[in-house]
Amino acid sequence: MNSSELLRIRIGDSLYCRQQAICNGGTQLTPGIVTGLGKSFTLYFSYSTPNVISRVYVPPGFFSTSASSGLSNGGIFTGNVGTDLQFITVGAVTTSLSFNRTSYSTVIGMQVSGFVNAGVWQPIPGQLIGNTNVRFTVDTLNKVILAGLSATLTTGGNTTPAGAGKPLEGWQFTVTLFYL
Q1: Considering its fold, how many domains does the chain have in total?
Q2: Based on the domain organization, do 19 and 59 belong to the same domain?
Q3: How far apart, in whole angstroms, are the C-alpha atoms of residue 84 and residue 67?
Q4: 55 and 8, same structural domain?
Q5: Range with the largest mean pLDDT of 15-19, 141-145, 156-160
Q6: What is the mean pLDDT of the chain?
Q7: Range of the domain at 97
């Protein structure tokens, strides 16, 4: 974890503390209060080619119970599910997905890890997350679009999934979304 990530966590804690009026002076959380901080979900992804996401694992509870049938239970999905999970294909490229009717309303951050050529999981560098690289957009409550998820950016170009005996066997990259 670098200093930018620590600062982001500290600011998030401070804002939440103030919003919930549970500070013990300043911006420190009152000891003993369980606040529900850390609402996050990690999704796992695989490619069929470097620019085509072929499947996604969505954890239970990521989608609300009002989402299309079966989504709130989570699972592995290989195609569109109603209008709530959409694999966005432009030409022959599928590096974007849309998630509608999520349980929480607003994504405030993301972290991406990839299974890189050296055969290990690593977070992608921060400079690869932004408006022209790996990114998320939120234009409506309870909706997030992930875009720019090419193998070049997420795994350093590696197209081989994690093998037997490796963490997250069969997957190639993860996206953890942080919610306010």
Answers
A1: 2
A2: no
A3: 6
A4: no
A5: 141-145
A6: 86
A7: 39-179
Task: Answer yes or no: are the C-beta atoms of 111 and 153 closer than 8 Å.
Answer: no
Predicted confidence band at 180 (pLDDT cuts at 50, 70, 90)?
A: confident
- pTM score of the predicted model: 0.78
- 43 vs 178: CA distance, rounded Å: 12
- E strand or H helix at 98: strand 93-100
Phi then psi for residue 103, to 5 deg, are -65, -35
The band of 32, judged by pLDDT with boundaries at 50, 70 and 90, is very low
User: What pLDDT is attached to residue 15?
Assistant: 60
Is residue 14 located within the same domain as residue 82?
Answer: no
DSSP three-state, residue 100: strand
Kindly state whether residues 114 and 25 are assigned to the same domain.
no
SS3 126: helix
Q: Are residues 96 and 49 in the same domain?
A: yes
* DSSP-assigned states of every residue in 2-45: -HHHHHHHHHHHHHHHHHHT-BSSTTPBPTT-------EEEEEE
